[in-house]
Specification:
- By secondary structure, this protein is α+β, with helices and mostly antiparallel strands.
- Helices cover about 45% and strands about 15% of the residues.
- It contains 43 helices and 33 strands.
- The strands form six sheets. The chain has a nine-stranded mixed sheet, sandwiched between helices. Strands 17-16-26-25-24-23-22-21-20 form a nine-stranded antiparallel sheet, with helices on both faces.
- The longest helix is centred in the C-terminal third of the chain and has 41 residues.
- It is elongated.
- The N terminus is likely disordered.
């Protein structure tokens, strides 16, 4: 723990002005008591300022004499010697500690009104999500493009055309396609980054009101003391005034709120994914001041620990050196310096939103040091697996091209300028790796994106990354968030169990009746009070007994919570709390007759079924934490003065706190099996004496710096959490999103392994895993929590190794330990399990898990979430899907695909994903075949004509072949489908086949290679066999046969005909026929229109295409595709 300057001698001036010091022995006691918790560095500051000045870790007043004079007290040097003598041992200890501290320590002690020099030590408060700047844009974009061998090859081929000796055909045919692809990519990247820049500028230019000491001194009393500052210019130490619904621009310590109780609510959905409002508490000393302007006169400082990622932890202190007073000579009524502890409850994190009222905060962390930025990872450019596979094939094709060129030159005996001939052959065969492949695939992706966005069954789906639709067909792991993704985050109380009696959702009116009885409502079934003990009365006594028990449990549930009723503008009341469970329980108490009407930090007011008001004073509040798994409250009934400690929490922790019973464990297990979230309610009555004793010990523990939380927990355990009276058990249902169960079942049948990563509690996550059917009926659930050592981890991994059919539920701490110690072993076992649930995951942990699965399994990972806390995970996945939900659009904007509900994932993956991948694979192989066949013809031609590097087809024929004559039919393959939509969703097992990647593999690639070699050779050799006297006729015969062959091959590849396919085939054929008349330099019209030409072409096409049709027919009979079996 870092040292905290306490500036105890700031009292010196006051002592001379009539302040009576404490007795020496008492002072020493205070000093010794504070010394072990809060070592003072002030003495060291004075000593070092008197001696030679050395650089220090947290020397906040260095180089600013005025600042030092004001904040350390005017007369501090007078007593310097005296202080130094008394505490010389402490000085040497603290200075040696400081020297041993790491120089990179980022903890800070910031005074009110800090100097500019101090403020400049911390990072600027700038939001920056841009990927590029003006200097890096082109270099990075070009690198991203040309790191692909595919594009680099074409760049080199295009550049070679500027060398006269290597020039073949039109330069435009080489440069235009490459330039087109690059321009589209650069334009897209530039536009995306421009939009990011606009969003950043908007965030950075949002203006905030800062309390301004300069204007305060010069202004008339009661005038404005604020100035408007853009978010990017806020600095550590600024005092910011926030209004309702304003975004918090930096991490602030909450000093004052407009609510007299010193509390305010914030919305944290963009930080932790939870939709509920969180209560935050202002520093009590500041809240008591008369107005915001008094903060500017305060002689105080705030210590904050070094910035960390954890949003649930903050360690700091608030120190007042000189108490606020109306006159200089007034004697302060409190000892100075006054130190108050600061926790996460006193802090507003950046990117949260103030939900109600206004507040003043003190900036402690800015820019890169804020929790929001530390939990966000920068997006990387995503590349689809199909693109990587095609890049791999391009390398093979390049090797083939080079080998072919070398063989042809070698067969010619390396004569003449053979090295130039090699290059000329390389350029002649460059169509083997067609640049049009890239253009076709990019256009195909655009078509798929359009089909997804125009699908009426998944409305409002948006494709934000149009380069990844094929990836949707290759998913093997689905990582899902829980809150808002699988669940609606809407709770409803379903059950109340009290040991001997259980009330279900239908019998809640009986609870209301018993409660009304306990509050004195008349019961027609009652006999006279003093009659003889008849059977009726005995039954009534049991009933009275029951109504008092119902009264106790309902009253406790109505008091033990963190819920605040908020009156809206229209007069309606909504409940706000940090947990939706609590809101559900308070709504339930209202429905049975006990209504929460008012709540602040000090008082709770309830309205009974009879209409009377009950007032309770809140003495202590112990909020729910993930470690404690429980929340407690100490209240005093203002009428009777009775003090009660009420506590509710998870059964695992409450079971050892409450008195012995025989039903709690069994009933919680029953409710959990139904998927209900359980809470145990208990209480303990306290005497005034025992409460005061507890309060004193608790305060002493709360101001410790080392082991503060442990000390406070120990005090609570000793004084309060003993032998609690067990009142009842509640079961709350978290409503699921529409069709979640059927969606998860379909995805599981499609061979997708599903992981649930959530920030929620382990019990809650287990309940949801059961209710969503993520865990199969009777499947064993293995919970792993609170692992501390490597041996424990090893034991758990050994157990899981032998039980791979179970569902693993693991908490964030244990997960981190597993990843730190046995990363490979853990991920090896976890990826084999049918389902994994990780709880209490930070945003960074979620992203790490996604990256780990990707790198270890080399499989495709899809992440889906709906909150700002899911952004890192979504960006780390191969495919990120964001749900537009209650938690805003942050996840949706960061994702590659945006959907409106979880169930749309089925259609997105099993239909659109499957089609996109199959179509692109077919398209890619066909375009490669189209390039290969013409290169094989070129090779045959050159080898027959003395190995001369002369082009067979030149100019417009080459340009037209890849565009006008074949592009439309080949591209129409993006509309092909093997099964209809209903079958694809009815048989999710069809999706499993694609995951193996057999649609585009080395096997299919070499099959197409063989087809190309056969067809190219057949057409060229037949042209030469049917050779005419003129060379021109070879060109016309072979080229016509080639175009017709391609049209027939497209027809053979189509599974389901579409109207556009028919049109493209017919139109292309007529276009070719028409162009023959306009290209006399290649086609002799009289010969083309002759019968000889027609039969020769027909024979050639038959020889090249008919055998393939026969082979396809035989294969469909012997080894039919899985999809064809369903038709």
């Amino acid at each position: 723990m870092s040292e905290i300057p306490l500036h105890q001698f700031g009292r010196a001036r006051k002592a001379r002005e009539g302040y009576t010091a404490l007795p020496e022995d008492e002072d020493a006691a205070v000093a010794s008591r504070t010394n072990d918790r809060m070592p003072s560095t002030v003495v060291a500051a004075v000593t070092s300022s008197l001696s030679t000045r050395k650089p220090r870790r947290v020397d906040i007043y260095e180089g600013d004499a005025d600042e030092e004079e004001t904040l350390l007290g005017e007369q501090s040097h007078d007593h310097g010697e005296e202080i130094r003598v008394e505490t010389s041992s402490r000085v040497s200890a603290s200075s040696s500690t400081r020297r041993s501290k790491h120089s990179g320590d980022k903890s800070r002690t910031v005074p009110f009104r800090p100097s500019e020099k101090l403020q400049k030590r911390f990072p600027p408060n700038i939001v920056r999500n841009q990927k590029y700047n003006a200097f890096t844009f082109l270099p990075i974009v070009f690198y991203e493009q040309f790191k692909f061998f595919f594009n680099l090859y074409f760049l080199l081929v295009a550049l070679s055309q500027f060398v006269p000796a290597l020039k073949i055909g039109l330069i435009a045919t080489y440069i235009a396609p490459l330039a087109f692809v690059l321009c589209v990519t650069i334009g897209k990247e530039a536009y995306d980054d421009y939009k990011r820049n606009l969003r950043d500028r908007e965030a950075n230019s949002q203006r905030y009101l800062v309390l301004d000491p300069a204007s305060y001194e010069s202004s008339v009393e009661g005038g404005p003391h604020t100035r408007s500052v853009p978010s990017s210019q806020l600095a550590v130490g600024d005092l910011i005034l926030l209004e309702k619904n304003q975004r918090v621009p930096a991490d602030l310590v909450l000093l004052r709120t407009s609510d007299s109780s010193g509390t305010c609510f914030i919305r944290t959905d963009q930080l932790d994914g939870e939709t509920d409002w969180k209560l935050r508490i202002a520093v009590p000393v500041c809240q008591k001041l008369n107005g915001d302007s008094d903060l500017l006169l305060l002689d105080a400082e705030i210590y904050a620990d070094a910035p960390i990622k954890d949003i649930h932890t903050f360690i700091g202190t608030f120190t007042i050196n000189t108490p606020p007073s109306s006159s200089r000579n007034e004697v302060p009524m409190v000892p100075v310096p006054t130190i108050e502890p600061l926790t996460a409850e006193n802090v507003l994190w950046s990117n949260t939103v103030l939900a109600a009222g206004s507040a003043v905060g003190f900036v402690v962390y800015t820019g890169a040091e804020t929790r929001a930025v530390m939990n966000t990872s920068h997006p990387e450019t995503k590349v689809g697996l199909l693109d990587i596979e095609i890049n791999r094939l391009a390398k093979i094709l390049c090797a083939v091209t080079f080998a072919l060129s070398l063989v042809l030159v070698a067969l010619n005996g390396f004569r003449g300028l053979w090295y130039i001939y090699i290059f000329r052959f390389l350029i002649l065969f460059s169509s083997i790796i067609p640049i049009s492949l890239r253009v076709n695939l990019d256009m195909g992706k655009t078509v798929y994106a359009q089909q997804i966005m125009s699908d009426p069954e998944i409305p409002d789906t948006i494709v934000r990354t149009s380069t990844l639709p094929e990836e949707l067909g290759r998913i093997e792991y689905l990582l899902s968030d829980k809150t808002g993704t699988l669940t609606q985050n809407e709770m409803e109380m379903k059950k109340l169990h009290m040991g001997t009696v259980s009330y279900g959702f239908e019998s809640m009116d009986e609870v209301a009746h018993q409660l009304a009885l306990s509050f004195g409502a008349s019961d027609p079934g009652h006999g006279r009070k003093h009659s003889l003990a008849t059977g009726i009365q005995l039954a009534t006594r049991g009933r009275r007994d029951m109504s008092s028990r119902v009264h106790d449990v309902v009253m406790s549930l109505a008091l033990c919570h963190n819920v605040t009723p908020v009156t809206n503008d229209d007069g309606s009341v909504t409940y706000q709390a940090s947990s939706p469970d609590e809101v559900a329980i308070v709504k339930w108490t209202e429905s049975v007759g006990l209504t929460l009407t008012f709540r602040d930090r000090t008082r709770i007011e309830l309205q009974t079924p009879t209409g009377s008001k009950l007032n309770f004073e809140v003495l202590e509040l112990f909020p729910f934490t993930s470690e404690s798994k429980r929340m407690g409250i100490v209240v005093r009934d203002t009428q009777s003065g009775e003090i009660t400690f009420l506590q509710k929490g998870a059964d695992v922790v409450m079971a050892r706190i409450v008195q012995r019973n025989d039903w709690l464990e069994e009933e919680t297990a029953n409710m959990a099996r139904e998927g209900l979230r359980t809470l145990v309610m208990a209480r303990r009555k306290l005497s005034e004496q025992s409460y005061l004793e507890f309060k004193e010990q608790h305060h002493l523990a709360s101001i410790r710096l080392d082991g503060r939380n442990e000390a406070m927990a120990a005090v609570i355990a000793e004084y309060l959490e003993r032998d609690l009276e067990l009142l009842g058990l509640t079961g709350v249902e978290d409503k699921l999103q529409d069709d979640v169960k059927s969606t998860l079942e379909l995805l599981r049948n499609a061979g997708i392994k599903i992981w649930m990563l959530t920030g929620d509690k382990i019990e809650t996550a287990t309940c949801i895993a059961i209710s969503t059917k993520l865990v199969a009926r009777n499947q064993y659930i293995h919970q792993v929590a609170k692992l501390q050592t490597g041996d424990e981890v090893r034991n758990q991994l050994d157990f899981l190794q032998n039980k791979l059919d179970c569902c693993l539920v693991i908490d964030g701490e244990s997960l981190q330990l597993c990843l730190n110690l046995f990363k490979n072993e853990f991920i090896e076992i976890a990826t084999k399990l049918s389902a994994v649930v990780a709880c209490r995951c930070s945003p960074t942990q979620k992203a790490d898990v996604a990256r780990l699965i990707r790198s270890h399994t080399k499989k495709r990972v899809c992440c889906i979430g709906d909150g700002g806390n899911d952004v890192s995970m979504i960006q780390a996945a191969d495919v990120g899907v964001g749900i537009v939900g209650k938690e805003g659009k942050q996840a949706s904007l960061a994702a590659d695909f945006s959907v409106t509900q979880f169930s749309h994932l089925t259609k997105l993956l099993l239909w659109h994903g499957r089609n996109s991948y199959r179509r692109s694979a077919k398209l890619a192989q066909f375009v490669i075949h189209r390039g290969l066949i013409i290169s094989v013809m070129q090779a045959v031609f050159s080898s027959i004509f003395y190995f001369a590097p002369i082009a067979l087809y030149q100019g417009w024929l080459m340009a037209g072949y890849a565009t006008v004559y074949t592009m439309a039919p080949v591209f129409s393959l993006v509309l092909d489908r093997d099964v209809n939509e209903d079958l694809a969703l009815l048989y999710p097992e069809l999706y499993k086949e694609l995951v193996k990647g057999r649609v585009l593999s080395y096997k299919t690639f070499f099959m197409w290679l063989m087809i190309s070699v056969y067809q190219g050779s057949a057409i060229m050799i037949m042209s030469l066999v049917l050779f005419e006297n003129e060379f021109l006729n070879i060109v016309s015969i072979s080229f016509t046969a080639l175009v017709l062959n391609e049209l027939i091959m497209v027809a053979l590849e189509i599974t389901t005909w579409h109207v556009y396919m028919v049109i493209s085939e017919v139109v292309t054929f007529f276009l070719y026929a028409l162009s023959l008349a306009f290209l006399p330099e290649y086609f002799d019209l009289t010969f083309v229109l002759s019968v000889r030409f027609a039969w020769k072409v027909a024979v050639m096409v038959a020889i090249s295409a008919f055998p393939l049709y026969i082979i396809k027919l035989i294969r469909s009979r012997i080894a039919p595709a899985a999809s064809s079996k369903l038709l």
